[in-house]
Design a protein that fits this description.
This protein has a single domain, classed as 3-Layer(aba) Sandwich (Rossmann fold), CATH 3.40.50. It is about 55% helix and about 10% strand. The protein contains 9 helices and 5 strands. The protein has helices at about 10-25, 30-40, 40-50, 50-65, 80-85, 100-105, 120-125, 130-135, 150-160, and strands at about 1-5, 25-30, 70, 90-95, 140. A 5-stranded parallel beta sheet has the order 2-3-1-4-5, sandwiched between helices. The radius of gyration is 15 Å and the shape is globular. The mean pLDDT is about 90. Its cofactor is Mg(2+).
Length: about 160
């Protein structure tokens, strides 16, 4: 299993799908699994709180890691110590993005409950996570300014040569 991690808005889902297509492997997005099984993430946060969401997320990650292909994790999934331990057995790709680039991606997005107020929330949320992302990563790719197709080819090339 190849796992994509990184902050909200870095393009884990979009890039993960492209890389999976290039490699001819399945793609799974834990946020999409949660939505399919439990409904919209903002609604889960509102009705049940973040702790309940994180439990659902942990279950989706655990099940996803049992499969093959590429797995995209939600930005906060790496906060769980069990997930951190589990990722040691997989190749992990950390996707980064600059605050300026993410500000454009987050504009008008209401599906990310922890960054509702834009880039300032995003910076505050991700600052303490950055060390965890870096520690877990086998490779890091910046998605701030490069075309997704170019990045997907670069990530796929790294995956096939390591």
């Amino acid at each position: 299993m190849i796992v994509f991690i990184g902050p909200s808005g870095a393009g884990k889902s979009r890039l993960g799908k492209r890389v999976a297509r290039l490699l001819g492997v399945p793609f799974t997005d834990t946020d999409r699994v949660i939505i399919a099984e439990h409904g919209p993430i903002p609604q889960i946060f509102q009705q049940h709180g973040e702790a309940h969401f994180r439990a659902l997320e942990r279950d989706a990650v655990r099940r996803g890691l049992q499969g093959d292909g590429i797995l995209s994790l939600g930005g906060g999934a790496i906060l769980d110590p069990d997930t951190q331990r589990d990722l040691a057995d997989h190749r992990v790709v950390f996707l980064t993005i600059s605050p300026e680039a993410v500000a454009r991606r987050l504009a008008g997005d209401t599906d990310r409950p922890l960054v509702r107020n834009g880039v300032d929330d995003w910076i505050a949320l991700n600052a303490p996570r950055w060390e965890i992302y870096e520690r877990l990563a086998d490779a890091t790719f910046d998605t701030s300014h490069r075309p997704n197709d170019e990045l997907a080819k670069e990530v796929a090339a790294w995956l096939t040569t390591t």
